[in-house]
Amino acid sequence: MTSPDRPGAPTASDRTDVLAAGSEVGDWVVTRLIGSGGWSTVYAARPADAAAGSSGPAEVALKVMPTAGLAPRQARRIMESARREVDLGSRVGHPRLIGLRESFVLTAPDRPALDGAIVLVMERAVGSLRELIDAGVPEADRGPLIAGICEGLAHLHGSGWVHADLKPENVLLGEDRSVKLSDFGLATELTGTHGYVPPMGTLDYLPPERWRAPLGELGVRVRPSADIWALGIVIHEVFSAGGSPFSGATPVARGAAVQEYAQGRAPLRMDHTVPPFWRALAADCLAPNHAARAPHTAESLLARIAAHQDATGAGTGAGSGRRRGRARTAVLATALCGVAAAALCSDAARGGSSGPPVRVGAPAGTVRVFNAERSCRERADRAAGCSLGLAVDPLRAYTADNVVPTRVWHDDVLAADCELPDGQPIIDEEARWSTRWFRVRLPAGSAPPTAWLPAVRTKDRPALPRCPRPTAAR
Ligand SMILES: Nc1ncnc2c1ncn2[C@@H]1O[C@H](COP(=O)(O)OP(=O)(O)OP(=O)(O)O)[C@@H](O)[C@H]1O
């Protein structure tokens, strides 16, 4: 997430909200600080139980977004940014997008600066494209990197999302230099042809139309072509050691140059180091308005890159058959991950499958109800005031009109037959936060026969198949 209007944002060294190596955060132990942005600090972490020798998952990245002491408007922005990250992360998985494992709210009464911070647990990358550009991108890697960004964008756009903050800082790299788009704090799902974002972004990557876009009640309207413009700037940077095609000493001056170009008063001037094929590709991405840019979708750009590689063998600076094969794979993967197959690709990207069909009547597991209120946990009389509700619809607000008549109490054990990872976000009395819900069976004769328990109401995490997304109750 980036805000152009936050001068003086604190750095990691002068903040009291920085976690030392060895700090426990949820089920994770911080191993080191990776870096800080304006609103968040990112750490490498390992699973807490790995210390005991268990074979847990590899290192992750924890993005910690403190909310303490912020003005209400800033706190709302952070919550909104986290909501977008979680929304996208739980619904649009792909190998070219950094994976989100879970999110929660930190309870740290002894560290007021961190109490209430939002934590995103992400797949860990080894660096960013910005670092690589600063160090000098090896010629052979340039084409494959751009192809990887196109792959990620093609999947995002095909799934109906706009990234809205594409820049080299948000293109992370895996161990093998594979691209992982990240930072979905401004990402928006399209409603029809547009999505809406807060009036934020990184000036150097904003398309001309964003500079004049009116701010409505929902925010500023954006379309996938905004990401394509940003891609044009990134392509130019990759081939010109970080140079912008728009000259000026500051982002605002470069923004003025963008306007001159968009209004036809100045030509597009690219650095002579950008090879002809990439120059043409970047020029199409940098078409001056949405209508001229719209035909150049991420998918069509990817197909052009693959064709170029096939035609030249060395067109991306990479002439080996291995790399040509990689570009073909990119096109294939994009085709497979198009709109129709989005759900399948999303599951595959998380390393799982959509699981066996759910068989109602044959529960695959159980969950023990947990009441975050200690006073309720200590009594066994099933007092009405300590009962908990189960939702009718996990996609709607968890309010009194959305609960079944059957109540449950702390320590009740319920049969659960599937889980929904991306339902309504629920925050409990201990500030644990989750979008996960379990479908549980109610006693025989209950109507309806099943209801939904939010994951924050249990400590159990049984291995369950994914539930079909409920629609009937909406
Ligand atoms: N999943 C990750 N794995 C490894 N490093 C990461 C990961 N996510 C972010 N980082 C790194 O952590 C640092 C801070 O990232 P963060 O997203 O908080 O801020 P930023 O992108 O640098 O700035 P801002 O989003 O405020 O413009 C950056 O150097 C970024 O490359």
UniProtKB/TrEMBL annotation:
PROSITE patterns linked to this entry: PROTEIN_KINASE_ATP (PS00107), PROTEIN_KINASE_DOM (PS50011)
Gene Ontology MF terms in the entry: ATP binding; protein serine/threonine kinase activity
Homology family: Belongs to the protein kinase superfamily. NEK Ser/Thr protein kinase family. NIMA subfamily.
Residue ranges occupied by any Protein kinase domain in the UniProt entry: 28-311
InterPro entries assigned to the protein according to its UniProt record, in alphabetical order: Kinase-like_dom_sf, NEK_Ser/Thr_kinase, Prot_kinase_dom, Protein_kinase_ATP_BS
EC number: 2.7.11.1
Pfam family, one: Pkinase
Domain of life: Bacteria
The protein, known as: non-specific serine/threonine protein kinase
Organism: Streptomyces venezuelae (strain ATCC 10712 / CBS 650.69 / DSM 40230 / JCM 4526 / NBRC 13096 / PD 04745)
Keywords, alphabetical: ATP-binding, Kinase, Nucleotide-binding, Transferase
SUPFAM superfamilies assigned: Protein kinase-like (PK-like) (SSF56112)
